[in-house]
Amino acid sequence: MAAEFHNLQEMQHSALLVTKVFIQRDYSEGTVCRFQNKFPSELNNRIERTLLEETVKTLNSYYVEAEKIGGQSYLEGCLACATAYIVFLCMETRYEKVLKKISNYIQEQNEKIYAPRGLLLTDPIERGMRVLEVSVFEDRGSSGSTPSSSMSSCSSAR
Amino acid sequence: MEPPKPSAFIPVCTAVCLLLGSTSMFFVFTCPWLALNICPAVPPCCAVLFLFVLANFTMATFMDAGVLPVAGEDEDKDDEFRAPLYKNVEVKGVQVRMKWCASCHFYRPPRCSHCSVCDHCVEDFDHHCPWVNNCIGRRNYRYFFLFLLSLTVHMVGVFTFGLMYVLHHVDDLWKLHCLVTLVVISISGLFLIPVLGLTGFHLYLVSRGRTTNEQVTGKFQGGVNPFTRGCWNNMEYLVCSPISPTYTVRPWKRAAVRVQPPFLRPELDRQMAAKIRDNGTHSLALQNKRPSAGAVELSDIKQLKTPPPLPPKPDRSLLKSQVAVSDDMGHHTKSIIPVSIPTVPQLRPVLEAISRDSSPIPPEQLLKASDQQAGSRGVPDVSSGSKESPARGSHQVQPLLQPSGSLQLNSLPLNSRSLTLKHSSRHGSKSQLLLMHADGLGSNLAAGIISTSGLLASQCSSSVSPSYDNLISPADSQFLAQRGAPSVSYHSHFMSLGTDGTAPRPAPHSYSPVFMGVARHSPQPRDSSPSLQGLTSRDPSPSYQGFLQRDSSPGFQGLIPRDLQTQSITSRDIPPPGAAKREATCHGLPDSLRDLIPQDMTLPKSAAARYDNFSKTIMASIHERRELEERERMLRVQARSQALYGPDVGIYDIPSRRSLPPDNVRPSGSRGPTPPAYGSREFLMSTGILGYGLRTSPLSSSSTSSLTRGPKTSSSPLQSSSSSLQSKGRSSSPAYLHPERQAQGHSSSSTSTLPRLPTNTYPAPPYTSYPTAKRSSLPFPSEGKESVALGTLK
């Protein structure tokens, strides 16, 4: 009994992936990487609008920074040409650095904001930069004969 | 992707051989002389240039062009079924068409194209170059372009210097060095022309900001190219833009983020909300309170979530949310509705009682009961009030039956309540069904009635249809909750009917006979719905018969008819609630409900014994089955006649995603055009089943699933659900099951009928036709084959 109850408790505290909400790319500025800041209606009662919009805005700014054509990108290009692109084997490009920053940011957002609300953001790079995937979890409660499915894996773990 | 064909490597190998061979010959045979006679810097420069060519060639060959990974199932499942081929998006004011890629399962971003050779989508797709055996896209276009440029320069240089050498050694033309140089310059001269042409072409493309693909397909021939940045900026972008990393290979993995309930919810309008935000403890505590609540208690958090009126979600979540709401709220959640609508299951006992000629609960009594529950609130309140009771009921879940019963049916005898408790073993689908019915039935009254009937039904049907039991008991609250908005609206409708006591709709005379017939039936045979037996056990009180005559309450009549309609009504075999519903096709469900409610209220007392009499139940079920069949026949007849009424006809709307949709009130006989799957079979089945309060989980789940996918595939989900239901047919299933089975069997056997129902009612204004829809839906199930209904009930 106790074990059952314990399982029930556990069950109550496990999350089950219910659905995924996709935030699409915003192509209004061309092929630069931007995500729509439209708040999906499915998340209306899961998260505050401002939080998600803030996240998307920050992500967009990161992408703008990554794709900026400027001094650093010039240098990188020249260096690459000069070394017959061997430098790519040794050094990380700025884009890659920003992507790492984005990944950290998403991880942090997930931990702080989204996971407590039963949501998980997936790094867009894993979806080919086409969508920003928001996984929606529900509390499995005691409904389940389904195996515990606490979704712990981040999308990057895929 | 298929393995690369060997023939694909021929151009690459040829190109490599030519390039390497020629250049090496040049360096060996020509360069020494050049260094001596022209300039010593010539060979180093050529070497550097050649190195650059090779580097770019290598990058163009081996670099990922920007391959977009295939979309996962989750992403495309929404699109797959009903995705239009093109999706328009505006890019800098220009409409660009995004095409659906069937291989990769997503809409191709602008400038993206699918390479048939490599079988993947490439971002900013330019072309597939055979000489490098690779797609040229966003990531490697720069290298390709630079390769072309550098190769052109290189070839020009080789040709020029070779020519100079040859011209200086005309006399020694047949010497080895000269011969080799001749060969080299002829090769370079020969291939210089196409390479030069290609380079010039790409220079033009870059200046215009187009890709080869766009140029060749003539996309922006006459129009404006939204992707160009201007000639200079395009060049700048080409050379200096950062190269995005590949999408297909992720270098690093992140630690998993653990997602664990309880979950915070924004703007919780329930008390829970605040608690949740503070810390999860309260919600946790709440959760712990009802460990075995099951779906009902799913999560307090869920409760907090305002359940949208039947969003296309799994039943579970719906149920949970609704239950939660009802639990939580206890007071408002009109949207949840569970309360008010006297679901068919709830009404079934009443109906059965009526059919069995037991002392049927006078409608007034039922109405009173529900009214009591509903309180003296207005129509809207009724629903909320009703909700409360179920909410409360559901809140306690198992123990709840009593409270809910008490809440809803003040006068409900203990028997029913106890019976409910007995049978309230299962929740889930049944409750959903119950809710659905409840929704259909409408508001407070419904709630009261439903709870009563549900209780009764559960009790009665426990022996016969366990699912029904479940429906009744926990279902009550759950259903009510689930019914949500639609039920609310319906509820008001119902209530208005009930309270007014007037028949808003033209009283279908058929209903009267039904009730009469029901009343005439001895309660005993109707064992299928013990609760109903209880109802029927009451002598066909005048009130009941009065109820019968109360055409004005079509909805309720629709509920009751099943039992009542044995004789006159077009006899749907729906179990009492269903029957009532069906009969009430012509009339608003509320009326029926109202009628039922009072009966229901009075039923418990006399029905107590019956409920416990299982043998009687069995007999009753058999009897009911017969009655159902008869009713079904009658209902068919009636349906046809009622078809004229259109939406007014009882709607057996499938509670497609919501509480019974008001439309599709079409009697089984008069099904209109196939409605969207959303409404059709699923609805029929669900409503039919609900009508009888026996909504088996498979049924509900199947119907739910079909509901959500309804738009996508019309009849298939419904069909499958119906077929699944049918497969479960039980011969001995109680009469309650019959209607459902029949409905299902009917649906399965005759797809046309099922779809018809919803379609007909579909255009009708939801709420107005809701009661009627319910009614028609009730008859509909009865039309189904018995086996089907029974099966589904399970």
Automatic annotation (TrEMBL), chain A:
Biased composition (Low complexity): 142-158
UniProt keyword Membrane, yes or no: yes
Keyword tRNA-binding tagged: no
Pfam families: Erf4 (PF10256)
Domain Golgin subfamily A member 7/ERF4: 21-133
InterPro entries tied to this protein: Golgin_A_7/ERF4 (IPR019383), Ras_palmitoyltransferase (IPR051371)
Compartment(s) of residence: Golgi apparatus membrane
GO biological process terms on file: protein targeting to membrane
Region (Disordered): 139-158
Keyword set, alphabetical order: Membrane
An example Gene Ontology CC term for this record: palmitoyltransferase complex
Name of protein: Golgin A7 family member B
Organism this protein belongs to: Kryptolebias marmoratus (Mangrove killifish)
UniProtKB/TrEMBL annotation, chain B:
Top class in the EC scheme: transferase
Any Pfam family hit: DHHC
InterPro entries referenced in this protein's UniProt entry, alphabetically: Palmitoyltrfase_DHHC
UniProt KW keywords: Acyltransferase, Golgi apparatus, Lipoprotein, Membrane, Mitochondrion, Palmitate, Transferase, Transmembrane, Transmembrane helix
Residues passing through the membrane, by range: 12-35, 41-62, 143-167, 179-205
Domain named Palmitoyltransferase DHHC: residues: 97-217
Catalytic activity: L-cysteinyl-[protein] + hexadecanoyl-CoA = S-hexadecanoyl-L-cysteinyl-[protein] + CoA
Biased composition (Low complexity): 696-733, 747-762
Membrane topology: Multi-pass membrane protein
Positions of the UniProt region annotated as Disordered: 282-323, 357-399, 499-584, 648-681, 696-794
The keyword Lipid metabolism is assigned to this record: no
Polar residues bias locations: 525-555
Localization of this protein: Golgi apparatus membrane; Mitochondrion membrane
Record-listed E.C. numbers: 2.3.1.225
Claim: Transferase is one of the keywords in the record: yes
PROSITE patterns xref list: DHHC
UniProt remark on domains: The DHHC domain is required for palmitoyltransferase activity.
Protein name: Palmitoyltransferase
Organism whose genome encodes this protein: Kryptolebias marmoratus (Mangrove killifish)
Lineage, top ranks: Eukaryota, Metazoa, Chordata, Craniata, Vertebrata
